[in-house]
Amino acid sequence: MKLAFLLFEYSPYGGLQRDFLRVARAALVRGHRVQAVVSRWEGARPTGLEIVELSVQAASNHARMRRFAEAVAGALSAFGPDQVLGFNRLPGLDAYFASDSCFAEQLTAKPSLVRALPRYRTYLKLEQAALSRAYCFFLNDRQKDEYLRHYRLAGDRYEVLPPGIEKDRRRADNATALRADTRRELGLAEHHKVVLFLGSGFRVKGLDRALTAFAGLPRDRAGNTRLLIVGNDDAEPYLKGLNEDQRQRVHVLGPRDDVPALLQAADLLLHPAYRESAGLVLLEAAAAGLPVLTTDTCGFARYVSEAGAGEVISSPFQQVSLNRLLIEMVDAVPGSWSAKGIAFGRQEWLYRLPERVVDRLETLQDSQ
What we know:
Blueprint: E1 2-6, E2 9-10, H1 15-29, E3 33-38, E4 40-41, E5 50-53, H2 61-79, E6 83-86, E7 95-97, H3 103-107, H4 112-115, H5 118-131, E8 135-138, H6 141-150, E9 158-160, H7 175-186, E10 193-198, H8 202-205, H9 207-215, H10 219-222, E11 225-230, H11 236-239, H12 244-248, E12 250-254, H13 259-265, E13 268-271, H14 280-288, E14 292-295, H15 301-307, E15 310-313, H16 319-332, H17 337-344, H18 353-366
Parallel strand pairs: 1-3, 1-6, 2-4, 3-5, 6-7, 7-8, 8-9, 10-11, 10-13, 11-12, 13-14, 14-15
Domain Glycosyl transferase family: 181-329
Pfam families: Glycos_transf_1
InterPro entries: Glyco_trans_1
């Protein structure tokens, strides 16, 4: 088939972008022709993937997205795809990979005057266009239920995907050596308790919450604890509330490509997100044997609880609960969380997302 994959922007560090690339590679392996239509591509260009960059200029993100949606129509007309898979809310899709929570659901908490602003009207209109005819891939049951509250989708128009972890996240045979080498590179001693904050988009991922909890560690734990901040974002605004001693124990690493090594080097993943449709890093950490401390607003937090691979803070969020659990887990890691996470990561269904998406695209084509 000729497949068009639509993604507003690609960089190698976002969870959505990684899902996009995994699905594209799975389609290429099966012999399909795949054209990626984006407004910007950052990073290496995979062999076999045709990339079309559409230049869109506007003063706001929602205006850029609207213009991207308009420009996509011309690109699709020239390519003539058999199936169009969108990784953002866009019109004209045959299938929609719903990486975001339902926008209509988010609007229910907004005052009517706010809902009338151009940003909200634009994104809602794009979501309505995407859901009008597309087959929908959801990342978890909670996300699916949100969409079904606002859109009438027949049972044959959607499915919930498995998480889609990359297999290199699992605990490898060389994990001990990898841990030692990575700690040595980062200037970390073996006796240090290392807390990892991993993910781009620091505001939504809850870096402020993480730093408050880290700064609240009692003195007898604090001196031996280090925090690694990894992601494609600016951490500096969040660090202003730390004193000099606390700042010295925080390592801002920026975006990194050696995630499997970092998962082995750390002792605990701290991910107190405000909201997140999925949160793949939670399952990657669990599969690597890294205990997880997160919030129930992450779609994949339920797997952490069910596997016994960490602790999940219930809503409504309370900073005091995060502070307390961080102290308890720093004292106890690896506990039983590590072994349970490793056992959880041995389940093959966790790695089937790309194949499931391509299976469905082929089925949709056969049914036409």
